[in-house]
Amino acid sequence: MMRFLFCAALALACCGGLMGQKTINGIVFSDEGDPMFGLSVLIENTNIATTTDIDGRFTMTVPQDQLSGFLSINTGYSPSRIAISSFLDGQVLTLQWTEAGLVPFYAVDEVTVTATRATSLTPVTYTNVTKEEIQKRNLGQDAPYLLKWTPSVVVNSDAGTGTGYTGIWIRGSDPTRTNVTINGIPYNDSESQGVFWVNLPDFSSSADNIQIQRGVGTSTNGAGAFGATIDFNTNQIGEEPKLSLDGSLGSFGTRRGSVNYTSGLLGNGLKIDARFSKTYSDGYVDRASADLQGYYAGLTYVGADAGAVWRFNAFGGNEVTYQSWNGVTQDEINEFGRTYNSVGTEKEGEPYDNEVDNYRQNHYQLHYNNEFGGKWSLGLSGHYTRGLGYFEQYKADEDLADYGISGTMNNTSDLIRRRWLDNHFYGTVYSLRYRPSSLLDITFGGSANEYLGGHYGEVIWAREAGDSEIRDRYYDNDATKRDFSNYLRTNYQVANGLSAYVDLQVRHVSYEFLGFANDLSRIDETATHTFFNPKAGLLYQLPGGGQAYASFGVAQREPNRNDFTESPASVRPRPEKLLNTEIGIRRQQGNLNYGVNFYHMAYQDQLVVTGELNDVGELVRTNVAESFRLGLELQGGYRVSDDFTIGGNLALSRNRVKAYTEFLDSYDENFGWLGQDAVEREDTPLAFSPSVVGALDLNYRMVNTRLHKLEAGLQTKYVGERFVDNSGTEGAALEAYNYTDLRLSYSFDFGARRDVALPESPMNPGADRTMPAKRGPKLRLTLLVRNLTDQLYVSNGWSYRYNFAGEETLLKGMYPQAGRNVLVGLGLDF
């Protein structure tokens, strides 16, 4: 296959030189990801010119004698110059404006990923995070900590540092309700529906851009979005070859090394990407260490004429993380301090030194994109993910019968166990786009995936092992989950500046697992669900730029693994349903950009923990008939000068459960269990849903010369009071908090750089226009002081509410975050 691709690329490259003229296609985006309309596009030293349309697109036929020339594009900030040779036949070159000018790249996944992504013509609420923004803040932190400044986002780290196990809440929706895709491929765990960023260390270093859709958003692949969708795109083709070496050191023994290489698009249509990263941190919490390594490799082939693009991606990571899942109670803080970690302390004396989570995950993706006749675009992707790992625990005084161990003098023993997950996930993602004119855009797409999950446990040591053998499994069960979905999306311009959007999705899920029958015996069971998720909206192009939009969408999703496996079918919870309304305005006016968005998210049968036990004595989630989120999101930015910018966002919301029944365990004075008491709750706050979340971002460029750049950034985050359960009682609240990060960035371009004078053009007669020659190596130095004001805050928690001797009592766990800490990064680009 590779021999064929190389031969084909060589043949196409040779044929390209025989052409008499060339038709080029481009699309221009702002730094916010919005199309730039009405820009002048001129072939220098000629009168051949055009302008970008409402979608930012342009097409131009270039005569043979100008094939080695340049385009001049006036963005309104400054003219930019693009070599005509950068344009490949049959491919659309994307040009995105940055402070450094227009950055060209090929979005080779335009069909597959754009099928599920939002654009400025989509009436949904979204935020784009560019590669430049990622690189500016990235010193190896997990992805949630690079996204924490975006609207309505709250993040948490078990270790307190942003490395290891981290989570992200968007509009108060927990991580299992956030749909995550990588190049359009689902990433959420199929069974728990959770997102484990620790399995992809430093993955953000390979991301070209990240889009966050809040609310239902567009139809996507994988589990339904019940609060947000996050899509990572790694498939763009940058123009310049680049080798980057990065290292960082910081507080709590944190250190990271990374090598990142891209060949740029070679003359034969090939592009190679590679990255290897290794990160280590002791963690802020005691023993909460993380030893992580991650990699990324990509091989791309771009056809010269037919518009075909092949892309193979391989990426993954291995993590060994000392568990810090338990959090800490106030009594433990009072006795041991806020960094206390109870994990591993069942062992007498020193805590067990290998109470770790050890997991490896490898992802493989093959993408194919093609365009036909200028109106049809096809995207096909195949994927396979392999995961294997365990978490290890020292358990004291365990009942040996629970582990199938007999032949001992005692019925209990200390032991060490490993609980394994052995999984395979594979499938296909597809889309077909038809765009007969600028007025109509139709996409049909979907996915078909299968997940195979093996779950088993081993006792690797026991003080009294009896008749057990090494690698005996004390439980062993498999699960199979199949997910098939199709969607049809249409965007049609019904009048000048007004477009209508319809998005219809059907999703079918089947799940085979080991569960409980009504007589509490263990049997193989199957559950199936079919969901219809319609979405519709209107978008109006405002005079002078910007859009106003309104949309309504429905999302439905199945319960997770524990909801299925720990309950008999007769009491298993029902699927959840979300009705989402979004109304907003987004606009760019000169140096000012702003967005205002109102949302209402009405839930039917939302699943929450109420303390209720099922037939087998397990805590279960219960359907709540009615709950909602009502909010207003504001965001904006202002360029005060070429060197000083201000940005920020503010989310105000009301998040409530109308009524539900909470169940409390009841104990007598000797902690003898008496059963459960029912408590009726009305109009209580949804757990983990602050009513106020805001961020402020100040950036000042103190030095900005050709060789030297020095920039300071100050980011502040505020998170209002959050409750760890749905009771709304005072003791269940986590206090509001704020923190500020200070970032100093310095870069230096080595070697002399001469300016090349550009010829005058009709667009800018007599203008002093120069462009730098090819640069030499570049040094980057970053100092990041996190939590500058040393706030001692808690970002996550849990609760156990019970009645003791007739009095309601609360046990609350918390996850303290690090005070002031420092990261220093050094990078070299060649």
From TrEMBL:
TonB-dependent receptor-like beta-barrel domain span: 315-749
Pfam families (alphabetical): Plug, TonB_dep_Rec_b-barrel
Chain ranges of the TonB-dependent receptor plug domain: 122-228
UniProt keyword list: Cell outer membrane, Ion transport, Iron, Iron transport, Membrane, Signal, TonB box, Transmembrane, Transmembrane beta strand, Transport
InterPro entries cross-referenced by the UniProt entry: Beta-barrel_TonB, Beta-barrel_TonB_sf, CarboxyPept-like_regulatory, Plug_dom, Plug_dom_sf, TonB-dep_rcpt-like, TonB_rcpt_CS
Keyword Repressor found: no
Protein name: Iron complex outermembrane recepter protein
Species of origin: Neolewinella agarilytica
Lineage start: Bacteria, Pseudomonadati, Bacteroidota, Saprospiria, Saprospirales
